[in-house]
Design goal:
5-stranded antiparallel β-sheet, Nuclear Transport Factor 2, Chain: A, alpha+beta
Length: 171
């Protein structure tokens, strides 16, 4: 199946998440100088991966280096499409993904998991109202990140207008 890599964005709001780093024995070796090999871990659930990424996005507004945990949790194929880190940072801080970084608040939904794939919805409250983003993750099959959940793509969800009401004349 061919994947279209929207972008791994991971974004933000007024929520404080605890960054969970695996123990030294779980470190993932890598040759990519832009990632932190201690971040990906088979112990992290899809929701925890997204929470770490969203937190890093929110914190990285002024400092690109704070995006490293987010970038490190992007799947290798995602990083191949969106890297290196400075390109990834620019993408994450450009519309529409900048809304995740600058949102007033955000909430992470429960992962929908099927086999080695997961989908996590992130709802954010922005200056323009609510927005939604869908994170697509997969459990990696190859070393050095075997069995780690990592984000393959992030898609902007359509806006639902729940404020529109039919006029009394049309009834």
């Amino acid at each position: 199946m061919r994947w279209i890599y929207s972008i791994l964005l991971v974004l933000a709001g007024g929520f404080t998440a605890v960054m969970m780093y695996p123990s030294i024995g779980d470190r993932v070796p890598t040759e990519d100088p832009d990632i932190d090999p201690s971040v990906p871990s088979p112990r992290l659930s899809p929701e925890q991966v997204v929470a770490c990424q969203v937190t890093a996005m929110h914190q990285s507004i002024a400092d690109e280096s704070l995006l490293v945990p987010c970038y490190s949790l992007a799947s290798p194929s995602n990083r191949a499409m969106t890297g290196p880190l400075h390109h990834f940072w620019a993408m994450c801080h450009s519309p529409p993904y900048d809304l995740l970084c600058e949102s007033d608040s955000w909430q992470i939904g429960k992962a929908q998991i099927e086999d080695s794939r997961a989908s996590v919805i992130v709802s954010v409250l922005t200056h323009d109202g609510p927005r939604g983003f869908e994170f697509q993750l997969s459990r990696q099959q190859s070393q050095p990140v075997k069995d780690c959940w990592m984000t393959d793509s992030v898609a902007v969800l359509p806006i639902l207008d729940v404020t529109h009401r039919p006029s009394a004349e049309g009834s």
